[in-house]
Design brief:
The complex is a heterodimer of chains A (266) and B (158). Chain A is of the alpha+beta class and 266 residues long. Chain A contains seven helices and eight strands, in the order αααααβαβαββββββ. Chain A has helices at 5-11, 17-31, 35-44, 54-66, 84-94, 107-111, 129-134, and strands at 103-106, 119-122, 193-194, 200-201, 214-217, 223-226, 248-252, 258-263. Chain B has helices at residues 7-28, 32-48, 55-75, 77-81, 86-89, 98-103, 110-119, 124-131, 135-157, and strands spanning 2-3, 51-52. Classes of the chains: A alpha+beta (266), B mainly alpha (158).
Chain lengths: 266, 158
């Protein structure tokens, strides 16, 4: 090779071993995304607008993600099934997340295919067998019962999950992992900010264990290794607490397992 | 033409060509951080897609893939929309080598021509093949790039 200033300058450009390892690890994670992982992502979209606001929210976020109807404390209570509009109205008027949002599930999955386009919001009490058999599919939502513990108010718009936003109704093989509450910040939220470079930061390094390496998958489908201890100097004023989108990000550990998830906040 | 290779072999290919990929990316993007992104993108392609079997074909293919990925990134909406984090956080952005920054003033692809001609030592016709350009365009690009390089190197010596 003819040596000149240009070739000498290029010669000095090398990819460090750590950069190679990071690229390989991230690419392997992306490559290893299985059909099951894709299913997780699809189902996660259902809960995309849910904000993690404290332990209570986290609890029913995992309910939504897991698609498990809540256990009924009072089986004899009336069925509470509502439409999207009704559920939203309830959220607005009561200033809190309605109990009916504790779990959503399509009628197709729950009761067969006769109401395949219908979305049902279950209250804290499940319908009895008789009521379900009677097909009481459009009973309006009542106000939460006095005995129900109030849930914390959401910090942004209440989730409204409809048939339109939940196209996937096939059985879920792999339920989403529950949120690891140890990953949440002190206020119960997992904040993620987005920087120009596409890197996402989680701005509470104390929420993470130094013994582990974490990755997040961005809305662009890229994986980034998070080094919380390195981002202490990030200007937190950059965090814009307006939920701009309902995209979800997923937090992976170094085994490639999803250990947390949260809506994107930026 | 292509063959799907195992993870270990793919890793080995990636390690072998990481410098090449990164250098090509630096010639096409403004920031090293973006070039690192491209490194990850191309690594994913090596891991998941069938790749050319023979060595020389593989190298040219990787150059082509890297340039295409850089173009995708340059055109992506987010790059045009977002503000630079360096403006806000007083973070000293890692800059590409000065000579590359100067070469960025040249029209698109001229930097690739310079790199492929001077560093990878491809012929004009090979460069035309890799970049899918007319041979005469490569020649004129090389002429302009030479003039620019000459000017840069003279200034650097002064």
């Amino acid at each position: 090779m003819k040596t000149n200033s240009y070739t000498m300058a290029i010669d000095r450009i090398h990819v460090s071993e750590s950069m190679i390892e990071a690229a390989l690890a991230a690419a392997k994670l992306r490559a290893a995304k299985t059909a099951a992982a894709q299913t997780k992502v699809r189902y996660a979209a259902v809960a995309a607008s849910v904000v993690l606001a404290g332990a209570a929210s986290a609890a029913y976020f995992s309910n939504i993600a897991g698609f498990k109807p809540p256990v009924s404390p009072a089986p004899a209570a009336p069925t509470a099934i509502a439409t999207d509009v009704e559920a939203t109205e309830a959220a607005t008027t009561q200033g809190s997340v309605p109990a009916t949002q504790a779990h959503t599930e399509s009628t197709e999955k729950q009761r067969g295919t006769e109401h395949s386009q219908e979305t049902i919001y279950y209250s804290a009490t499940r319908p009895t067998q008789e009521e379900t058999a009677a097909g009481s599919s459009q009973t309006a939502t009542d106000a939460p019962k006095a005995t129900e513990a109030p849930r914390p108010a959401p910090t942004h718009s209440a989730p409204t999950v409809s048939a339109a936003t939940e196209p996937a109704t096939e059985p879920q093989d792999v339920p989403l992992p529950e949120i690891d509450r140890s990953l949440l910040c002190a206020d119960g939220k997992l904040y993620i900010t987005v920087a120009e470079t596409g890197l996402e930061y989680i701005d509470d390094p104390a929420a993470f264990s130094d013994d582990h390496v974490y990755y997040i998958e961005t809305k662009f489908g890229r994986f980034y290794q998070i080094k919380p201890f390195e981002i202490k100097h990030i200007d937190l004023s950059l965090n814009n607490d307006k939920p701009k989108s309902d995209e979800m990000v997923y937090l992976y550990n170094d085994d490639g397992e999803i250990v947390g998830q949260a809506p994107v906040w930026w | 033409m292509g063959r799907k290779i195992g993870t270990e072999q793919a890793e080995s290919v990636f390690r072998q060509y990481a410098d090449l990929i990164y250098r090509v990316a630096l010639h096409n993007l403004d920031y090293p951080a973006d070039a690192e992104d491209i490194l990850q993108e191309v690594c994913l392609i090596i891991l998941t897609k069938p790749i050319p079997a023979d060595e020389e074909h593989l190298k040219r293919w990787l150059i082509r893939v890297t340039i295409n990925k850089c173009r995708d990134l340059s055109r992506s909406y987010r790059r045009r929309k977002w503000e630079s984090i360096e403006d806000h956080e007083n973070l000293e952005a890692e800059k590409p080598p000065e000579i590359l920054a100067e070469l960025q003033e040249l029209p698109e692809n001229y930097q690739n021509i310079v790199y492929l001609y001077y560093y990878e030592e491809y012929t004009v016709s090979e460069i035309a093949q890799i970049l899918r350009m007319n041979v005469n365009t490569v020649k004129s690009g090389l002429k302009r790039a030479r003039e620019k390089l000459k000017q840069l190197l003279t200034e650097a010596e002064d």
